[in-house]
Q: What sequence folds into this?
């Protein structure tokens, strides 16, 4: 294999690496040694466990994501928006013990007011711009901490994060609602949740308890309950993110099932967002940043 | 002691009992054998461990709370609102093995649309009416599942439950926000959270993540973060409960610290609610129901 560099997406839960050749990825490797499990001294060994078969010579490694957080390998200071999503001038070199490694971290972005931060999505935004040159509009990254990013003239103008996915995980597995939740889905219940939250976001905490009461009184099924909860959470997110999506071209970057839910919810508001593969965007963004570094 | 009957408040987490004499409580006993820890066959032994010193002769025991839930000792069917908060005709007799016990459960209330249920608060509502005859207005029970109850002409007209306290517990101890939370308080941060949620309930999930971002970017302190989270949650509850409190006489029935937070939040909207002691209301309600039973 003619490995020219290694791309790394190092999040809270997972570590993913790609051996990159001149024409794109040659091989992929994944482990569960995410940032959340590692002390600073444990990052280099975790990386080597995954990529040492590829290190036949000194190789540049470029990583994005939570590896650059304050609790990560080493803190990569946020770049302040408005700014381009990635910039070779902002990357952080992290010294390593293994002489075969040259390790760099792409920093996240910050926004002063309203206070907000991202780590990883900025690289996906750069990937969207690489895959769709001249894109002007809004990129939505659904997930644990969903992000809406306004992109114009090649820059991140503003963004806003919603704790939607984390609320869903907590409420469906840790709260009193867990007793009435199960795998499965119900489109009508999801749609009702979206519509309800968009119309009455102030009733959010009451609608949550309604799931419990409707289970007890009206036989709401576990699948209906789970889909309605998802709808309520995505609906209140869409209510809050309306200044982002109203009248805009929207791109969704996320896992297929979640992107399908957001597409359905946005469809109820007359939007038809495009969906891009999250991994493809991450790789395109890291590749763009790597080529910028090489041109320096 | 001239024990004429025994009053019991049996919730999810705790079991509390009072030996009642002709003029009121003579003794109190508490254990942590709440409904949540007990299988149906374990309720009678748990009760006897607490009250057997008082059982010098056959004694009537009247209980309210989650003991009557589907997962409790025995299910006491909800009474449907609108109705009086308690009614001797609705109580459930539960057979016991110990011949000294005559055990009854006060049922909760249900509301068909919007679907809602309560178990325990109905007894406190009866207590408010016993302590303030002719009360007409709104009773707020802040807590894990906060309830707003509209009372008129001695009946519960309607009510609505908000999952406020449970959301606070989950977010402050289980979510990403827990890293920036600590005991302590900050009135200004609480007020800002209340105002923000009342004005923009749709931004709820974004404001949650802001707590994290303001910690990282602007040095929000753990005490400020905790107070702002409480303010956001109480604020969005007040936004949703506005049809209940707007222009109404409001009584708060709850723990002192929590009632003080609600008083402060309602004060920002020009209300000056009265606060009643929750235990006093429970005992007054059980006493009223007990005397109704005796008159049957």
A:
């Amino acid at each position: 294999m003619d490995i020219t560099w290694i791309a790394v997406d190092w999040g809270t839960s997972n570590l993913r690496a790609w051996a990159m050749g001149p024409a794109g990825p040659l091989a992929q490797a994944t482990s569960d040694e995410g940032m959340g499990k590692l002390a600073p001294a444990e990052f280099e060994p975790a990386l080597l466990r995954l990529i040492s078969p590829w290190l036949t010579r000194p190789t540049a490694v470029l990583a994005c994501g939570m590896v650059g957080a304050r609790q990560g390998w080493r803190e990569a200071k946020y770049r302040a928006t408005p700014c381009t999503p990635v910039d070779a001038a902002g990357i952080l070199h992290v010294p390593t013990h293994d002489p075969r490694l040259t390790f760099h971290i792409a920093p996240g972005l910050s926004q002063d007011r309203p206070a907000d931060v991202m780590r990883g999505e900025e690289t996906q935004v750069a990937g969207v711009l690489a895959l769709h040159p001249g894109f002007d509009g809004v990129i939505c990254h659904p997930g644990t901490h969903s992000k809406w990013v306004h992109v114009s003239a090649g820059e991140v103008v503003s963004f806003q994060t919603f704790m939607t996915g984390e609320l869903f995980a907590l409420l469906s597995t840790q709260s009193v609602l867990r007793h009435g939740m199960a795998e499965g889905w119900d489109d009508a219940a999801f749609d009702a949740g979206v519509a309800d939250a968009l119309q009455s976001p102030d009733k959010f905490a009451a609608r949550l308890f309604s799931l419990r009461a409707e289970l007890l009184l009206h036989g709401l099924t576990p699948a209906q309950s789970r889909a309605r909860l998802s709808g309520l959470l995505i609906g209140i997110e869409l209510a809050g993110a309306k200044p982002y999506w109203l009248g805009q071209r929207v791109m969704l970057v996320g896992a297929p099932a979640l992107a399908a839910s957001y597409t359905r919810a946005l469809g109820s508001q007359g939007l038809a967002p495009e969906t891009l593969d999250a991994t493809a965007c991450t790789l395109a963004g890291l590749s763009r940043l790597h080529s910028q570094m090489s041109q320096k």
Summary: The domain at 5-119 of chain A is CATH 3.30.420.300 (Nucleotidyltransferase; domain 5). Chain A touches chain B through 46 residues (CB under 8 Å). The mean pLDDT of chain A is 97. The two ends of chain A are 26 Å apart (CA to CA).
